[in-house]
Fold each of these.
Amino acid sequence: MASTGQRRKPSWGWKARGSAVLEGFTIPFAVKEDRQNQVGQILKELRTDRWSDWERDDLEGLSRDEKQRKKTTLLTTYRSMFTGPHGVTLKHHDWLPEYVLTAKIARHRLTTSYDTDLSICTVRWRHASGLYGLSFFNNHLDVDARFTSFVVDGELTSRSNEWAVGEKGKGFILAT
């Protein structure tokens, strides 16, 4: 067969809305999986089987001005959390943080190829209308991650890692 010089475009098995495969995949499940991805990264980089040294900042009872000050700090500290369609939307003054969960682990404690501290941040946002939003930030990606790790069922980066073994083996796509 003669080659036309064109490459075949890869396709991925995205799930149709309402498909039976997606039963049970709820927002709480997605949040759990995203949090597990963050914790898994910490466990891998520290080479430990447990860690829970989170800094928690509950802003729910604070004034709008105090929440705005925290948002300004988040904008400065985690700039990339405010990119893309989701992040740009959160810049709007009607979105304010309500609960912030952060972790910063010094580079000298990590066993990783990264030359920076590991920074993780999860924010629960509330819109003036009453809607909620979530942001997940992590400045280190798993060094074994590939595009397929995020879009193909059964792919995950924790399968061969003794520190963060993963639970479902269904890949990041189930969380999103």
Amino acid sequence: MSPIQDVVTFAIREYLKHYSTPMQLTLLTTDASLATKSAKDSMVEALDHLQSLINEEMARQSTQLKRRRNHEHARIYQLPQEVFAEIMLAATSIDSNITDAFTLMRVSKYWFDTRRDHNQE
């Protein structure tokens, strides 16, 4: 498990331990430890940070799944990398809408890596 996953798992588990039942949900409005403005600010900051960690982890997982889907199911990824690199080179020299290699490199990490690796040869 990644460090981010560990933090998110721990934070969610601790948060749910304290605020998961209907009676416990009222703790945010009645908890004596949240009586001061700074305590409330700290809780808001902690929840915001937790939300950003969760969003970051979800984006990472989604990206990994999309890459896996592409590599396993998109026909273009079944081409040998050398053939794909030649197609990319031809596309930049023929199509005036593709102004440079960087346009192709922004399509995906695979396209970026293919173009970068081919330029190094």
Amino acid sequence: MPRKRNLQFVWPKDGPKGRGHRGFWGRLDNIITGKGPDVFLQHKGSKQPITRDEWQNWDSYAFRSAHDAEELNPVSRGFERYDPYTRKYVEWATPHDWCGVGVDGWGVGPNNAGRTRFTREEKIKLNKIRQRGGKILPSEMGSDWNNEGPKRFRPEYNDFWRNAHRQCENDHLGLPLLHDPNPLMQAYQRDWWDLQNWMRREL
């Protein structure tokens, strides 16, 4: 008699609060294009949810213990973390902040200040422009940017970043790591000069 499998596939949703619509064609498109959350294996009947910061791989941004646990997985994402706009796992300009010193050594502050904002590829491109003495024009940075900066920091993605940095934000505020996300965090780009401040700190 075949052995009964005690594992199940879990495919998180990446819409607002995990409620995004995804039918058969949406799933197929995600597989073909390499977009969307990873698929996880979990014990059948498990009531332990895969949290948003876990499947996004942002839970290990500020905590080496989470990264080490991830590395035990044969299909670890390593330092690739989810980008809510492109819906892909990418490497970031600052791979991690395990010491809590921020992207420039001056610590983190309110509204996501001091946490990575750019992908690794963007950092390389921006630094090349600066080294040539050129002017950085957001509109010429590609389809993932608009005239002010990266589209991943538009207001509609604020809920994503609240959850992505939930644990390190709670640690910064002296709260339990798994406490709810800080509802006051405004991680989105609010002013045009925010981009200049992000570049000054991280590049």
